[in-house]
Design goal:
The protein is an alpha/beta fold. It is built from eight helices and twelve strands. It has a single domain, classed as Alpha-Beta Barrel (TIM Barrel), CATH 3.20.20.370. Bound molecules: zinc ion (ZN).
Length: about 325
């Protein structure tokens, strides 16, 4: 059975403690982070990452120039933090908006604006998307399909963002493997292939999730290098592969993090060089694991192409 790894990275302006946006806006996470650290690491492994770009990045000429000049293989897509794009655009202190909470026409206009910024920056349309804070709702997927996207990667299985303010973004029962979603209910798999493939972030239940009372409150296990150990990260990958390989279809792992995590002081996760380096080392361990297992590291839209050729499949639960 073919297995693939996507490394999909939310790319934003520089932030800091408590995810506070640095003012004036700066983009060291693009120039030093992506060009200086991430892309050379991916190139070393012959891996193709997907950089999902927020509006403020697409509007920054130096960031666009830097991304246009990347060497090696990479997919560029979009990432919506709605504060940064019209209507009613502003520079927030923190990016807290969930797009599912906008009136549908406002959400549509923001997605249009984001997609237009990408087209202007790179001279071609984006194919892949992730919502800021994973905040898609009942209108998001049809808008993305109308705008020509092939992949959404906003679904975060086993997570429910109701307490954070987005009751529409509840993915507790979502499949962990790619599926063609019901447009009005993104966590549900449709019975037929559609124009937009959902490639969920790889998130598995905690091993303690079945414990009474406390089980539901224990954070699920993300395929994310931000915290933990390299071994823990590889265990998430191994567990998902073991689960999904029972079915006769391609198996996909989707690791996420942010570009700003791997430069000290630009996110809550790396206060110093040692912490930033530890995140990069865990990512390198995952890439080495993939190479050892013969798992190709491909872009999100490559998964859409693979599934278009190979489908349809029965939906899978992870
Ligand atoms: Zn984001």
């Amino acid at each position: 059975m073919d297995a693939y790894l996507c490394v999909s990275i939310d790319c934003e302006c520089d932030k800091g403690e408590g995810w506070r946006v640095k003012k004036p806006l700066s983009f060291a996470g693009i120039t030093a982070g992506i060009a200086g650290r991430l892309q050379p690491l991916f190139a070393r492994f012959g891996a193709k990452p997907t950089y999902l770009l927020s509006p403020e990045v697409l509007r920054d000429p130096a960031s666009v120039e830097c991304l246009n000049a990347l060497t090696g293989s990479a997919e560029l897509g979009t990432h919506l933090h709605g504060e940064f794009v019209a209507p009613d655009a502003f520079e927030p202190d923190e990016t807290t908006a969930f797009q599912c909470n906008y009136p549908p026409q406002v959400e549509r206009q923001k997605l249009e604006g984001l997609t237009g910024l990408f087209q202007t920056a790179f001279g071609k349309p984006p194919r892949s998307f992730r919502a800021g804070r994973f905040g898609i709702g009942a209108h998001s997927l049809p808008f993305l399909a109308e705008l020509g996207y092939d992949v959404d990667s906003s679904v975060s299985p086993h997570k429910d963002w109701t307490k954070q303010g987005a009751p529409a973004a509840s993915f507790r029962d979502a499949p962990t493997q790619p599926y063609w979603p019901v447009f009005a209910a993104p966590e549900q798999a449709a019975t037929e292939p559609g124009p937009l493939l959902e490639v969920p972030v790889t998130i598995l239940p905690s091993r303690l999730s079945r414990l009474p009372l406390i089980g539901a409150r224990i954070e699920p296990r993300w395929l994310r290098p931000t915290r933990g150990t390299a071994e823990g990260l590889m265990n998430v990958a191994r567990d998902e592969l073991a689960c999904a390989r029972e079915a006769d279809r391609p198996v996909v792992l989707n690791c996420m993090f942010h570009n700003v995590e791997i430069i000290p002081g630009l996110s809550p996760y790396a206060k110093n060089e040692a912490e930033a380096d530890a995140i990069l080392q865990r990512l390198a361990a995952l890439l080495a694991f993939a190479r050892g297992e013969g798992i190709a590291v491909v872009g999100l839209s490559d998964i859409a192409d693979i599934f278009a050729q190979a489908g349809p499949f029965a939906p899978l639960r992870g």
